Amino acid sequence: MKKLFLIVLIPTVYLLFVFNVPQIYIFTLVSLYGVAFYFTNKKLQFNEIIVQSKLDTSKNPTEYSIIKKSALFTHNEQPMVIVDNGFIIRSSNQAFKNFCGGNPDGKPISISLRSPDIDIAIESVNSRNVFRSVEFSIFQSVEKFLLAQLFSIKHDRKFVLLSITDISDLKAVDKLKTNFVSNVSHELRTPLSSILGFIETIEGPAKDDENKKKEFFQTIKSEAERMQRLVNDLLSLSRVEESEFQLPNEKVDLGGCIHSAVDALNVIAKKKKISIELSQQVTSIFVRGNNDQIIEVFENLLENAVTYSDEESKIIIEHQSLAEYEKISIIDNGIGIPTNEIARLTERFFRARNSVDYRRNSSGLGLAIVKHILNRHEGKLEVTSEVRKGSKFSVSIPKYSDDIN
Known about the structure:
By secondary structure, this protein is α+β, with helices and mostly antiparallel strands.
């Protein structure tokens, strides 16, 4: 087509110069020829695709035509696309069209998947006729991580089938695991370093100072207890996560769970002269769940309330009966939580910025445990707080019903 354009254009321009035609007319004619060539060439390319499609419907169907028409391709929920050796999309399924937000057929693959890794992988499959898989990322308002699997298709021309899988969630899980290991290592390293430092001091400069040795032993005990709390919370979190998707159906006495949690935390609360009070008695009220885990929810919430409250303060426990839930609220007059940090409270090891002076007594896992237990119970956690005035943690647990159970 290009040669034909030049064969017609060059003699025409020459004759126009011979007859002294003004240059503006010659330029206009050349421009018109160029526009006509562009659109004619595009139409021929489109016709080539149509002809190729018709050839695929012949009496001897190729692997390409079989795949293109198969339900595995057309109705697959995974985005799938067939690309030729010119990196042009020959066919795509509905999932890929939805992924792109339009019909990409007949357009370069680089418009739909802006990644040089894809072009390199397609070229590799075409040249070596082998299977390839490649991970890449694109931006669609947020960064998405994708896995492309590429297969060579037997045909008179080289075609490649791409299957796209969104692996963003897997990447997020891997990042969480990495952060979790990093946080655990940090949380254990700090008390361990402190313990080793005090032991070296006791064995060295303070070996003859009984008062200092007694003081250091008390600090070592405190750091060891801190490590023990962390390990216990990690084990508890692991157990809770294992059973998170097993819905419990026991008939649980809610009042009994609250009293058990209060009795367990009273020892710690009394050391700070903090009183824990029930605004009203909770008796003969039953919820659906697991007795030990519901006690654990209240223990964690009460422990946080005690930890982040100053001495000689008060913690109130309120009860409210709703249509489908029993709601228990734990209200303290502690340091409070900044509004912009409330949404992150149930993240592992997360602590509010204003809690620096209280962190030694907390593992940072209590509310993560509460979240997973409530997920298992189909319950709810609501938090309201005001800095320097206190916080209110409300837990809603489904009521027990003989009809359901």
